């Protein structure tokens, strides 16, 4: 009962499999992808994921177990030093041009393993086995790989597509709830920018999705991936329509930077960003107040919208530094009703300041939250 | 009086310019390559090169000087840590997707700068301005970029073509003579494997070439580059004929590894490798004794063949580890007469052992050298 989505880009064709039970025959699925029987397999994973899932992961491999390389997960380890240590371990274990890496973990591990595959011996093959909602919905698809600099996130990387993606939704059962909810904000985004039916479905089935119902979760993840695949196929190297995927991200990245990635998860930050973008769109007459209410309610349903502390002016000035901006122009993605969006280049500092102030006005205070929990 | 060679590959088209005086209008030449007038330029160079050539390099830039980033040259600095420091400096100086890097130095700097361009923001543009014979003849052309691991040379990298290559032969005037001679061994190689006329020319004009005569040096470098360009165009990703470029390199790499890169320059090591390959080819009846003599004499003319200390058995076993070997097979490039070569897969350990022992038999001892100098 898994879903298969075909990705066709000018530089690669591959399949994204989504559903429960995929780990059960992972070895056979990977073997079917290539014709190099002696290819050595290397799993890159982290202690947390491995402690939950190593048994299920390894069960299908039988006599020829893969080499397991573990690194600490977490944004702060998504760095050159981790890549170098992984590359040295690959070399020590005799990885060659035929070897295949398997990224088994969240987006941090997936991005790093894909990048490692892109640069080890100038490019070897890899497979994505994402274990977070964010990685299954978003980061494992599209071919973007990379790591962080001290100067900023994802400032180094490559485009390098996997041989296949196996998103086993069973693995989400051990994911902390806030991580699940934050990842699903990317599906909310998918609904807003390109897929009205997904939006409707997420409205109607919130409880089932959040409870991990197999059918509901598979459908939401698959529809989100399909949306991203369509956009990436149109625009592999991010020069046009692919920018729409950044709805909520310009301000979201600013919030993450202003709070040093310590207060909010990525999805929690872009939830705020989507609300601000929707407000700007409303004032420009691009969405009705009824649409604003539906969008805001859906974002909240997969929330909670988590409070954070930051300075409005700092946030506004940080949006000007977003690396999506070539040279001087400042871009912003705005929804057009529900299921469509557009890129505008003339969002003013004043508009952005108002929209950001509104966020703080509707933000629950710590006292509100304490009361709600009491 | 410079020569322009067009490179056409499935993924990029660019021109390699070779000749004296190219630095004089470098800024204008780079400006003509792109249509992003606000593109920021960054030069990556080293203190040694910059001390000789900064004035000539900067003269053409006038009011908009490039940002200059300096790193120590040398194989031991061709590492992730240098790349990271360069990437952080790019980010601090506001490098964006429109920025252009200029690699100004030898092969170490060229490989690292090309790799940095390949991965900074998932790929920005760069220009090669090579300043060693090896970089002008070989490393700046072909799109291979990379860095070393502790586990081995060039184990990480990317294929990333420059916007153009400007090989100003004037810069070779400050290059130590042993570096010039070692680089020219790659031209000897080009002659042996694919260009009989280049071989003849290098035989007839040794003195002029080594003295840095403009016409002779431009011709030799240009013919060598043209040979490499033809081969790379046929085989961009190194799956077929491009392997011929490795004549002398299987044993050459083993010599470099066995001597920990401390005793010989790369070109000095492959000089020995070419002599060994020629001897194996002779015993197999692929070259006549007259051809062996011509090849050996030409290698010596651009020598001297520099003595080194290593164990024959270690050298032979190291050739089995060459990363050009996929999985189990062991490959070797052998000359076929002069101007042609072929890939064989069945060179035995015994053949290789004999050829390696012959090298030591003809190696001048330290006493011979002391006598020659006396
Ligand atoms: N390549 C792309 O196109 C793209 C797109 C979006 C985001 N990203 C990147 O993705 C990264 C974020 O990914 P993420 O949100 O998955 O973060 P993550 O990889 O850090 O995982 C989040 C946390 O969940 C834990 N975890 C993972 N799977 C688990 C499981 N099944 N059970 C229990 N715990 C589990 C991890 O140990 C970690 O602590 C960022 O670095 C971001 O830049 C990349
Ligand atoms: N990318 C490729 O296809 C390819 C091919 C062959 C070799 N390479 C790489 O090239 C590197 C070797 O290149 P190299 O031989 O140029 O070494 P290099 O870059 O280390 O330069 C050699 C020495 O010459 C000095 N130097 C450079 N230019 C000078 C000048 N004009 N005047 C005075 N001194 C100068 C440098 O400071 C250095 O000490 C190796 O790392 C090798 O892996 C790459
Ligand atoms: Zn996102
Ligand atoms: Zn070489």
UniProtKB/TrEMBL annotation, chains A, B:
Its cofactor is NAD(+); Co(2+); Zn(2+). Its main location: cytoplasm. It is an enzyme of class 4 (lyase). Residues 70-181 form the 3-dehydroquinate synthase N-terminal domain. It is found in: Cytoplasm. InterPro entries: Dehydroquinate_synthase, DHQ_synth_AroB, DHQ_synth_fam, DHQS/DOIS_N, DHQS_C. Its EC number is 4.2.3.4. It holds the Pfam family DHQ_synthase. NAD(+) binds at residues 107-111, 131-132, 144, 153, 171-174. Binds 1 divalent metal cation per subunit. Can use either Co(2+) or Zn(2+). Pathway: Metabolic intermediate biosynthesis; chorismate biosynthesis; chorismate from D-erythrose 4-phosphate and phosphoenolpyruvate: step 2/7. The keyword Zinc applies. Residues 183-325 form the 3-dehydroquinate synthase C-terminal domain. Zn(2+) binds at residues 186, 249, 266. Signal peptide: none annotated. Keywords: Amino-acid biosynthesis, Aromatic amino acid biosynthesis, Cobalt, Cytoplasm, Lyase, Metal-binding, NAD, Nucleotide-binding, Zinc. One of its GO terms (molecular function) is 3-dehydroquinate synthase activity. It catalyses: 7-phospho-2-dehydro-3-deoxy-D-arabino-heptonate = 3-dehydroquinate + phosphate. Catalyzes the conversion of 3-deoxy-D-arabino-heptulosonate 7-phosphate (DAHP) to dehydroquinate (DHQ). PANTHER family: 3-DEHYDROQUINATE SYNTHASE (PTHR43622), 3-DEHYDROQUINATE SYNTHASE, CHLOROPLASTIC (PTHR43622:SF7). Belongs to the sugar phosphate cyclases superfamily. Dehydroquinate synthase family. This is 3-dehydroquinate synthase. It comes from Granulicella cerasi. The lineage of its organism: Bacteria, Pseudomonadati, Acidobacteriota, Terriglobia, Terriglobales. The gene is aroB.
């Amino acid at each position: 009962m898994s879903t298969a989505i075909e990705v066709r880009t000018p530089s690669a064709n591959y399949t994204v499999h989504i559903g429960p039970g995929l780990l059960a025959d992972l070895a056979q699925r990977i073997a079917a992808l290539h014709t190099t029987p002696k290819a050595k397999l290397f799993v890159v994973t982290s202690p947390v994921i491995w402690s939950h899932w190593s048994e299920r992961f390894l069960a299908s491999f039988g006599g020829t177990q893969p080499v397991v390389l573990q690194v600490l997960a977490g944004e702060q380890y998504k760095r050159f030093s981790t890549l170098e240590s992984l590359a040295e371990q690959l070399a020590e274990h005799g990885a060659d041009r035929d070897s295949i890496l398997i990224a088994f973990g969240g987006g941090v591990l997936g991005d790093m393993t894909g990048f490692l595959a892109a640069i080890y011996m100038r490019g070897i093959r890899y497979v994505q086995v994402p274990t977070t909602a964010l990685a299954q919905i978003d980061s494992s698809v599209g071919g973007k790989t990379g790591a962080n600099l001290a100067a900023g996130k994802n400032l180094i990387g490559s485009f390098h597509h996997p041989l296949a993606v196996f998103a086993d939704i069973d693995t989400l059962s051990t994911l902390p709830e806030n991580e699940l909810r934050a990842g699903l904000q990317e599906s909310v985004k998918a609904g807003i920018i390109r897929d009205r039916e997904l939006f409707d479905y997420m409205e109607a089935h919130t409880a089932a999705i959040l409870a991990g119902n197999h059918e509901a979760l598979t459908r939401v993840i698959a529809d989100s991936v399909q949306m991203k695949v369509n956009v990436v196929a149109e625009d592999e190297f991010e020069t046009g329509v692919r920018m729409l995927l950044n709805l909520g991200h310009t301000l979201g990245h600013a919030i993450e930077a202003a709070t040093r990635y310590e207060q909010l998860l990525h999805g929690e930050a872009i939830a705020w960003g989507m609300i601000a973008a929707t407000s700007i769109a409303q004032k420009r007459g691009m969405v009705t107040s009824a649409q604003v209410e539906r969008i805001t309610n859906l974002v909240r349903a997969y929330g909670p919208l988590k409070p954070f502390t930051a300075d409005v002016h700092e946030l506004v000035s940080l949006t000007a530094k977003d690396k999506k901006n070539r040279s001087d122009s400042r871009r912003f993605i705005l929804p057009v009703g529900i299921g469509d969006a557009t890129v505008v280049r003339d969002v003013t500092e004043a508009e952005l300041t108002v929209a950001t102030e509104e966020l703080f006005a509707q933000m629950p205070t710590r006292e509100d939250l304490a009361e709600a929990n009491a």
